[in-house]
Design brief:
Blueprint (H helix, E strand, L loop, with lengths): L1 H16 L4 H5 L2 E5 L5 E6 L4 H8 L2 H6 L2 H12 L8 E12 L4 E7 L1 H11 L7 H5 L4 E7 L12 E10 L4 E2 L1 E3 L2 E3 L6 E9 L3 E9 L4 E3 L14 H6 L3 H12 L3 E7 L7 E8 L2 E9 L35 E4 L4 H4 L17 E5 L10 H13 L2 E4 L4 E4 L2 E5 L5 H4 L5 H4 L2 E5 L2 E3 L20 E3 L10 H8 L8 E4 L12 H10 L2 E4 L9 E4 L2
Parallel strand pairs: 15-16, 16-17, 17-18, 22-23, 23-24, 24-25
Antiparallel strand pairs: 1-2, 3-4, 3-6, 4-5, 5-10, 6-7, 6-11, 6-12, 8-9, 10-11, 13-14, 13-26, 14-15, 19-20, 20-21, 21-22
Length: about 525
């Protein structure tokens, strides 16, 4: 173990004294000295799995490598906000083209990010300093498209040159031939680069939409694609694995605390179980706002994410033993990128239970692929088989089921109607699963007093369906909670739906109205 500690010190010195680059990180060498102080041969730093696990559990590691240091150096390695004379080239896939709210949302990466992902996810037998630094991260570009229609396509890589905003004069901060550039503002679209890897940050940018958005046709320029093997998803979709993980948290347990966090237009709920003399912590959805819902409109109508304070809005510092993701929409899992590093270390990471991940449907969501690939690499995620329901006492975890009514309503959103539902005694957490798709035979609806309203209180499901399902409640008390952000672009919640829930529950609470920025307790600990 002594030589491993010397290697850690070598890595620590490198992190402290130099700007990190991938090639140097992978080839970092350590020189061993014998008992007499004589210098031996230099050797490349690498460990097998057992050695790497031993290093992570070493007090020397936790003392020398703070999260703050590692997060700072990892960001330095990825270069999310490094500009050359005020400009930066990034590679993007269109993720969302919103006609209602006039913006484009791209999954993005830099050349440095592509190289790092390729090095980390390639098949290899040993571990290096890169494994100490790496954690899942999100990088995206949102661009306002007011008055512009670029006819962009999904599934295609675009090379986009962005220009950093000059905060002093509110114009592009570029420099050509030693002179400040000033492209006509009418040809520019304002946007934001967002980087999330605990902590989150954003940078306001401009895009010259006429000249600086181009399809990548040179194969040599294409970024690294993180591809998840379908067989690996299949082998981790298992009733036995789900049951084992759930039993560790919920079997013979009592939930004595459940909290809904105020995170804007997203769902983030965590709870605590008493299990004998132990405390077990869990999260059901760990969302964070997406796209324009993350942005904050200031008085002049422009958007400024830096002033929104959204990155400080919720507490992602808790240490759950289990994270459940109802479905793979970003407002239900995106907060994962804000979690502290302990939740991504091999020795301390919690297990995740999630809706089955469809790699083909998520092709444009590079960050989601990165997260799932990382958890699979750690062996820390299992997927809920369709049609299965976990039962233990008054606890239920099950999947929604397809309902033909959805086709008539033009709401064929597979992720939503197959969402996971969690029932904790008298409290129901249905994710975005509409009432039409609830698996009635598995749930004990007669016991439901409290509910987190599905899909942020949208106009679907139908009022009749809500009444039919929730009229079975045991009492006229209880509360309905709606997870919504102020002035969200979806205009959630629907007023008629709010009034309906007021007739079924004693009180309806919207998270946007909660004064405590950390949220509200459904069950007090």
């Amino acid at each position: 173990m002594e030589y491993m500690l010397e290697q850690l010190q070598c890595i620590r010195n490198y992190f402290e004294k130099r700007t990190i680059r991938l090639e140097a990180l992978e080839n970092l060498e350590w020189t061993k000295t014998d008992d007499l102080g004589k210098t031996g041969l230099s050797k490349k730093i690498s460990w097998n799995k057992e050695e790497f696990d031993e290093i992570l559990q070493s007090p020397v590691f936790t003392r020398e490598f703070s999260d703050k240091l590692l997060d700072r150096k990892f960001r330095e390695l990825l270069e999310p906000f490094i500009f050359d004379h005020g400009e930066k080239t990034i590679y993007c896939k269109l993720q969302e083209d919103s006609e209602d709210d006039n913006f484009y949302l791209f999954s993005a990466c830099t050349s440095a990010m592509s190289d790092v992902d390729k090095a980390f996810f390639q098949k290899r037998e040993t571990y290096s300093a890169l494994d100490i630094l790496y954690k899942p991260y999100l990088y995206e570009l949102s661009v306002e498209k007011i008055g512009v229609n670029l006819e962009l396509k999904k599934g295609i890589w675009y090379e986009i040159r962005v220009t950093k905003k000059d905060e002093e004069n509110n114009s592009p901060d570029t420099e050509h031939d030693g002179k400040k550039g000033n492209v006509g503002l009418r040809d520019l679209l304002i946007g934001h680069l967002t980087y999330m890897a605990s902590p989150g940050a954003s940078q306001t940018i401009y895009v010259d939409w006429k000249n600086d958005i181009n399809e990548v046709k040179d194969v040599e320029k294409l970024p690294c694609e993180i591809v998840i093997n379908a067989d690996e998803i299949k082998s981790n979709t298992c009733k036995t694995k789900v049951q084992k993980v759930m039993n560790e948290i919920f079997e013979n347990a009592i939930t004595d605390g459940l909290k809904i966090c105020r995170v804007g237009q997203a769902n983030y709920i965590y709870g605590r179980n008493e299990k004998g003399s132990q405390k077990k912590y869990f999260a059901f959805d760990i969302g964070f706002p997406t796209g324009s819902n993350l942005q904050y409109k200031v008085d002049n109508g422009s958007i400024d994410m830096e002033k929104s304070g959204i990155f400080d809005e919720a507490d992602y510092s808790f240490q759950p033993d289990l994270i459940m993701v109802s479905h793979w929409h970003q407002d239900h899992y995106r907060g994962a990128y804000m979690l502290e590093r302990a939740l991504y270390r091999r020795d301390t990471a919690p297990t995740w239970i999630a809706q089955i991940y469809n790699n083909d449907e998520r092709e444009e969501e590079i960050s989601a692929n990165r997260l799932v690939a990382y958890l699979l690499k750690l062996g820390k995620i299992v997927f809920m088989p369709e049609g299965y329901c976990y039962k233990s006492g008054n606890y239920r975890l099950c999947c929604g089921t397809w309902n033909p009514k959805y086709e008539k309503m033009h709401l064929n959103k597979i992720d939503n109607h197959n969402s996971l539902l969690l029932q904790l005694n008298n409290t129901l957490l249905p994710g975005d699963c509409a009432c039409e798709c609830w698996p009635n035979s598995y749930l004990t609806l007669s016991a439901v007093d409290n509910i987190v309203v599905p899909h942020h209180g949208s106009k679907f499901p139908s009022a009749d369906e809500v009444r039919n399902k929730l009229a079975l409640k045991a009492s006229g008390g209880g509360k309905a909670y709606i997870c919504v952000g102020k002035e969200n672009r979806y205009h959630h919640p629907n007023d008629d739906k709010v009034n309906l829930y007021k007739t079924l529950f004693q009180e309806v609470i919207q998270t946007k109205d909660i004064t405590d920025k950390l949220g509200i307790w459904i069950l007090n600990p």
